[in-house]
Amino acid sequence: MKLNILLFFAGLCSIGCAAAIPDEEPDVTAQVAGVLESVADGKVALERFTERGASYLAVPGMPALMKGCRRPLVLELLSRNVNGEDRLYVYRAKCQPQALRIAIDFNKAARINRLELAPER
Questions:
Q1: Domain boundaries in the chain?
Q2: Most buried among 22, 37, 45, 114, using CB within 10 Å?
Q3: Which residues are 90's β-sheet partners?
Q4: Rounded to 5, what percent of the chain is helix, strand, coil?
Q5: CATH code for 2-11+21-119?
Q6: Which of 25-29, 54-58, 96-100 has the lowest mean pLDDT?
């Protein structure tokens, strides 16, 4: 199942450059930037993740994808969706040599249930 989600997400990234939408929750965006910076530094606070969410951290090369991103990380919100009690956000991080698409899902307890990164094409 996780592989199918990753393939779907990678497909979305190849569609093209999506336009940013207004960010009505800058506090959430700041939290996401903090989580991504901790991933890049290899100092992830696992208590912010559900068991399922922590499994996404095992994806090989995730910290390496973040190395081309300047600090502080600047994110553009591309979409926000609600699925039951979960909130799914998709962001773009302008990194070098390539922008990244980030999908992050928060559960009702504000813990991360999913975190996916992929180069934007």
A1: 2-11+21-119
A2: 114
A3: 79, 103
A4: 35, 30, 35
A5: 3.10.450
A6: 96-100
**Please, what sign has the CA dihedral across residues 35, 49, 76, 63?**
positive
| 3-state SS class at 112 | strand
Between CA 32 and CA 103 the distance in angstroms is: 10
Residue identified by tokens 């190849």 is 14
Distance separating alpha carbons of residues 116 and 10, to the nearest angstrom? 9
Choose among 46, 52, 31, 43: nearest CA to 102: 31
DSSP for 62-99 reads HHHHHTTB-SS--EEEEEEEEETTEEEEEEEE-BSSS-
Q: Would you say the C-alpha torsion 16, 55, 76, 24 has a positive or negative sign?
A: positive
Q: pLDDT per residue over 70-114, tens digit each?
A: 888 999 999 999 999 999 999 999 888 889 999 999 999 999 999
Cα atoms found within 13 Å of the Cα of residue 96, Cβ hemisphere only: 2
Q: Are the beta carbons of 76 and 92 closer than 8 angstroms?
A: yes
